[in-house]
TrEMBL record:
Keyword Ribosomal protein: no
Organism: Ralstonia soli
Keywords: Cell membrane, Membrane, Transferase, Transmembrane, Transmembrane helix
Official protein name in the record: DUF2029 domain-containing protein
UniProt subcellular location: Cell membrane
Length: 418
């Protein structure tokens, strides 16, 4: 293994691991500290302007959480199936936003059940609790994964802007990142808890869609059975507590939302959607062709992910491939979902102890770090500037390369072709 790393450094300019006290580390820590301060100041200023000074022209921290809270209030007052009603949802949203607008509720009853308790609280307290819980879940899981990386790299992770984007909008991505990261960590240690974490992704099921395939290819039979059973229990609980009509209303509304917001969302939606499908639609491709192009890119990513899990590649590479494929397979994700990029960054940094990063790989990691900010800027500028599809492809190529650059991967390659 050592010979492989040294050979790579000589032949391809692989950078040695960062060490405490080096100029590079000091600069990285400085840049990260500045980034954190800027993001905290921006959030603080927006909170004070909107909630304290009542400046309704300021960005509203928790804009999307207002939709979650409004839906929980509608569900408590009119029943869970009523959350899809514009007539009931919009007045509550307008009262919170202080502007005439409307954002629909496109989520399944599993997520409604998760946010329903917040409807019993005033909005301000609910937002504070929701943001605190999301930060804690995210922070604890990422910190646990990052225990094996060099401490010199941790400021880079702490300053990751995907967290502040999610907090600024009040989105649920910090919770889903925590659930997915914890599930991956627990696969080898506690099948029951791993199954619980996978089942929790039912709140946003598109982010758990590849877990059954990964578990099947990796031969995690117990974990597959536990997660499937608990997901059914979770869904059953929603039927019992919210009523079957909530699922009927969701099934009826979802195709409408897909046509309205995804397939024909226009610049107002596609600008913030970092997917191959959204890019294809933004350049004028018809819907069917855009789906075809998206599938042409997503399918190989899923195949590579499944192959790495079937081959029992290093855990860090399997975990990275899973997250990357999960993001690539989605025709519809938004820039606030890019908080998920923290997982491939952390897992790959752990893998850096096996094989040092090349300069090109550092460029990919920095691009992944910048992706959430770039997604926000695209919305402000008003043009589709998303780099995420390219970043995801680069991350996947990075995983494959690192697999074959180890002695184990080289042996597998030789057996396959000789």
């Amino acid at each position: 293994m050592k010979g492989v790393c040294e050979s790579e450094r000589r032949s391809e300019g692989v950078m040695p691991p960062l060490r405490q006290g080096s100029g590079t580390v000091n600069r990285l820590a400085l840049y990260a500290s500045v980034a954190v301060v800027i993001q905290i100041l921006a959030l603080s200023v927006w909170v004070v302007r909107f909630y304290v000074l009542e400046d309704w022209t300021a960005p509203m921290v928790g804009f999307d959480f207002a939709v979650f809270w409004s839906a929980s209030r509608v569900a408590l007052e009119h029943g869970a199936a009523s959350v899809f009603s514009m007539q009931l949802l919009q007045p509550i949203e307008v009262a919170l936003w202080h502007e005439v607008n409307y954002a629909p509720w496109p989520y399944p009853p599993t997520f409604l059940l998760a946010v329903l308790p917040f409807g019993f609280m005033p909005f301000g307290k609910a937002l504070a609790l929701y943001s605190t819980l999301g930060t804690c879940v995210y922070g604890l899981v990422v910190a646990r994964i990052a225990r094996r990386i060099d401490s010199a790299l941790r400021p880079f992770l702490i300053a990751f802007p995907g967290v502040f984007v999610a907090l600024g909008l009040g989105q649920n991505s910090l919770f889903t990142v925590g659930a997915a990261g914890a599930a991956l960590l627990l696969l080898e240690a506690d099948s029951m808890l791993a199954g619980v974490c996978i089942a929790m992704l039912a709140v946003k099921p598109q982010f758990g869609v590849l877990f059954p395939l990964a578990l099947l290819c990796g031969r995690y039979w117990k974990e597959l059975a536990v997660s499937a059973s608990l997901t059914l229990v979770f869904v059953g609980a929603t039927v019992q507590l919210l009523g079957f009509d909530a699922w009927e209303a969701f099934a009826s509304y979802l195709p409408q939302f897909n046509r309205m917001a995804v397939e024909h969302g226009g610049d107002s939606m596609w600008i913030g959607m970092p997917t191959v499908f959204a890019f294809s639609r933004s350049v004028g491709m018809p819907v069917k062709l855009a789906y075809l192009v998206h599938g042409f890119v997503a399918a190989p990513a899923v195949v590579i992910m499944a192959w790495l899990w079937a081959k029992r590649a290093r855990f860090e590479l399997r975990a990275t491939a899973f997250v990357v494929a999960t993001l690539m397979v989605q025709p519809y994700i938004m820039f606030y979902d890019l908080a998920w990029l923290i997982l491939p960054m952390v897992f790959l940094m752990r893998d850096g102890k096996v094989l040092a990063f090349s300069r090109a790989e550092w460029v990919v990691l920095v691009a992944a770090w910048c992706a959430p900010v770039q997604g926000v800027l695209a919305g402000y500028i008003g043009h589709y500037l998303q780099i995420v599809p390219v970043v995801l492809l680069a991350l996947l190529a990075m995983v494959v390369r690192r697999h074959f650059m180890t002695s184990e991967g080289q042996a597998a390659f030789s057996r396959a072709w000789l």
